[in-house]
Design brief:
It is a single chain. The protein has 552 residues and is mostly helical. The chain has two domains: 10-211 and 226-274 and 346-463 and 503-533, Growth Hormone, Chain: A (Up-down Bundle); 276-345. Helix content is 77%, strand content 0%. Helix 1 packs antiparallel against helix 7 (113-146). It is globular.
């Protein structure tokens, strides 16, 4: 009599990838909410009267709870009680933060400047408290379902969804706002709530998987009790310490920049702040849907180009498939080339190239790390590209150097994460990954908070005359009896004609070059440490590391 061997859910490729999509929804929406203010900076100044420092304060204080251990608490909860409780609790906190932000921007708590500013900060603090733990939950879940399979690739695609959210948030927030900040904030908050429901659907499969593992006498690493000595072990591990510090220096030079990039392009390189009507891609009569579809096509192309070919054994068939996908993509780009030519002159749309670059390249680099390794070397290359990007955007006034800088930043933003996060899973035992990722995100948030706020504060500091001139213009237009909408239209008109004072971004962006230089040294130190400790960061995912399976 033949005994039937029962397989667990995660042994099904279709189930693994469906779970990835459900989990990635939360990543998509939270990254949208994290970065969509970047597309609204000019509108927030014109409509709400926020200065660059106040804009930076809203973004910077998003990280305040995480600076003081909120993510550590979330990581401990995750390791102790699992992804279900942690995801629901901290996903709910992120939704609450979105709701408070939406109400504040609509003047629900009061429409005077300070009240609106303070409540928007409160909303961002709540959102930030949930954001990073949600990212840890997603990363930990990907490891749970994909370790031993396509881990680096799955992590890359998961991050790709986040970058898709960032790109669309930056590019589409002005379209959605329609001249009112509150509309865009309400949309972003609703998006988080919807994707939290997708996470609830995922929980059904997570419960079933745990039951299968228990029935199969598998020992779940989540059953082990958390010990604070594990945190000490993490910090005392040189490889983990270097990769954690590399995380903060790299991301501090990327995430804050993304939120200022549209304004930089408008102020320094004379890009437009509002896309011309003929630049919109229309779908079902909607420009927002049409413009959004462009990013979705980019993402699907990246997945088809990097994932599917590896599943086709026959080389000739694989090459034919790649040729068909690539040809179809080029044909699509040609079909919207008129709109794209105007996108490359618009601040928000062009700035979205940074996360769009990651949508195209992160799955490819993730697939490369899975098959070839070289993770530490790729992190070094990513840090070099980061330095080139910020030098191009700060010291040069040539628009082509700006494009080159944005493209190289997009590639760097793909290389480093695709190599970094799978490397952590090699350095740290699976049972402590929640705490490890939480520790990294905590350290990262100190850098993010400093640079989010610091760029805005320094921008104000080095542009006192610009601030005074802008204030005088607003007072003059108000004295003429113009309302907020009319003032906004007039400011846009003055910008297009070159009659509006513009910020000098040279020193704020040069500050990010320093962060990139530090990242280079840390990446080299990580590579040297791995040679001694033998975690196999330069090896393929399937290769056996000299140090075995995550020894502390």
């Amino acid at each position: 009599m033949t005994e039937t061997i029962k397989k667990t859910l995660k042994e099904s490729a279709a189930m693994r990838w469906m779970v990835l999509i459900l989990i990635s929804g939360l990543i998509f929406s939270t990254y949208w909410f994290q970065d969509f203010y970047g597309g609204l900076k000019g509108l927030m100044e014109s409509e709400l009267g926020f200065s660059s420092e106040e804009f930076g304060r809203i973004l910077g204080l998003t990280t305040i709870a995480n600076m003081f251990g909120m993510i550590i608490v979330g990581g401990i909860i995750l390791d102790k009680w699992g992804v279900r409780i942690a995801g629901l609790v901290f996903g709910g906190v992120a939704v609450l933060g979105g709701v408070i932000s939406a109400l504040a921007s609509a003047g629900f708590f009061g429409d005077d400047h300070s009240t609106m500013l303070n409540w928007m900060i409160v909303g961002r603090v709540f959102f930030g408290s949930g954001l990073e733990v949600v990212c840890v939950v997603a990363t930990r879940t990907v490891v749970k379902w994909f370790k031993g399979y396509e881990l680096a690739l799955a992590m890359a695609i998961n991050m790709g969804f986040g970058r898709l959210g960032s790109a669309m948030g930056i590019a589409l927030s002005v379209d959605i706002a329609g001249g009112q900040v509150s509309t865009a904030v309400a949309f972003a908050a609703t998006l988080i709530a919807i994707t939290l429901l997708l996470f609830v659907i995922y929980l059904v499969f997570d419960i079933k998987l745990d039951k299968q593992l228990k029935d199969g006498s598998s020992t779940s690493s989540e059953d082990e009790e958390f010990k604070f000595s594990d945190l000490i072990k993490l910090i005392s591990n040189k490889s983990f310490l270097y990769i954690a510090l590399l995380c903060v220096t790299f991301y501090a030079a990327v995430f804050p920049f993304i939120n200022y990039a549209p304004d930089l392009l408008i102020n320094k390189f004379n890009f437009t702040g509002i896309l011309a009507s003929e630049g919109n891609v229309i779908m079902f009569g909607s420009k927002t849907l049409g413009n959004a579809s462009v990013y979705v096509v980019f993402f699907i192309f990246a997945i088809l180009f990097s994932v599917v070919p590896g599943k086709i054994a026959d080389k000739s068939k694989r090459m034919i498939f790649i040729a068909i996908v690539f040809t179809g993509f080029i044909a699509y780009l040609y079909g919207i080339h008129t709109q794209l030519s105007l996108w490359f002159q618009n601040g928000q749309k062009t700035a979205s190239l940074i996360p769009v670059g990651t949508i195209l390249f992160t799955p490819i680099f993730g697939n490369y790390v899975d098959k070839k390794g070289k993770a530490a070397s790729l992190m070094i290359l990513g840090a070099l590209l980061l330095i080139f990007a910020h030098v191009s955007l700060s010291l040069f006034n040539n628009v082509y150097m700006a494009y080159a800088g944005l493209l190289s930043l997009g590639v760097a933003f793909s290389l480093v994460p695709a190599a970094m996060w799978p490397s952590v899973a090699k350095i740290v035992p699976e049972s402590r990954l929640g705490t490890a990722y939480a520790s990294m995100f905590t350290i990262q948030n100190w850098g993010l908070g400093a640079f989010f706020w610091g760029i805005g504060a320094l921008l104000n500091k080095v542009n006192p005359l610009v601030l005074n001139e802008r204030l005088k213009i607003k007072e003059s237009l108000t004295a003429q009896g113009m309302n907020t909408s009319e003032i906004l239209d007039k400011v846009i008109e003055m910008k297009e004609m070159g009659n509006y004072p513009m910020y000098d971004y040279t020193y704020p962006i040069l500050m990010l070059v320093v962060s990139g230089i530090v990242a280079i040294f840390l990446a080299f130190a990580l590579k040297r440490a791995d040679l001694k400790q033998g975690y196999g960061l330069e090896l393929a995912s399937s290769a056996k590391a000299p140090n075995g399976e995550n020894n502390d």
